[in-house]
Design a protein that fits this description.
- This protein has 224 residues and is mainly α.
- The protein has one domain.
- Helix content is 79%, strand content 0%.
- It contains 6 helices and no strands.
- The radius of gyration is 19 Å and the shape is elongated.
- The protein starts with a helix and ends in a 14-residue tail after the last helix.
Length: 224
């Protein structure tokens, strides 16, 4: 951070983008549900709106990574770059899920064929896997990296950073549990595992909007 105005601007931008990610992700999930739940063509219109919400989500996810990289890199350039890359990976995976949903809409709008049901099943599965690998595994990874940098730099209160340090591994572990078939992705255990990361992003956003970045800790002589 070169000046206080620049730091404040970055804090507000990141705070707004974090809130946008939460709103857009929830809206997209709600709008997608009828189509992915087997509603057929009846859910196409809502699915297109959901895709638009998730395109906004993709932009916000990438935007948080880009905005925060120059702020936190002084306390660990490798970790900061890792956070940026993991955030961009999350955005790409979400984008792939959007493509799967829109392909499903196109399938419903085209002539019915013998393999339509099988193709629909595949596209729903592609969306579900991208949702698991993106807003779960990749999100958990970039949460840990960013929370560690914020804990080290003291740019935000440490309890907020600790929430991210706890929530990141938890949502990653939950994603692995889903991959192993221990419970469904959209289930009570899966939702409970996602709550700390949700709390981390919301509390971080509110703090950045209300207070901005705190006076940072001294930069280490040899950041890693």
């Amino acid at each position: 951070m070169t000046d206080r105005k620049g730091a404040r601007r970055a804090a507000v931008t990141a705070g707004v983008l974090f809130l946008v990610t939460e709103v857009a992700a929830i809206a997209g999930a709600v709008l997608y549900r009828p189509l992915l739940g087997g509603a057929g063509a009846g859910g196409d219109g809502r699915a297109v709106l959901g895709a638009l919400c998730e395109l906004l989500l993709v932009a916000a996810v990438a935007g948080t990574g880009v905005t925060l990289f120059p702020v936190v890199r002084r306390w660990g350039e490798t970790a900061a770059l890792g956070h940026l890359c993991a955030r961009l990976l999350e955005a790409v995976l979400i984008l792939l899920g959007i493509v799967a949903v829109l392909a499903l809409v196109s399938l419903h709008r085209g002539p019915a064929g013998a393999g339509a049901a099988a193709a629909e099943t595949v596209l729903v599965a592609v969306h579900d896997w991208t949702f698991l690998l993106g807003p779960n595994l990749a999100l958990g990874l970039n949460t840990v990296l960013l929370a560690g940098l914020l804990y080290r730099s003291r740019l935000v209160p440490r309890p907020i950073a600790v929430l991210g340090l706890a929530g990141g591994p938890l949502i990653c572990a939950s994603a692995v549990a889903v991959m192993c078939g221990l419970y469904a992705q959209l289930s009570v255990p899966g939702s409970l595992a996602a709550l700390p990361v949700f709390g981390w992003e919301v509390s971080l956003a509110v703090w950045l909007l209300a207070k901005g970045f705190r006076r940072p800790a001294p930069v280490p002589l040899s950041p890693r």
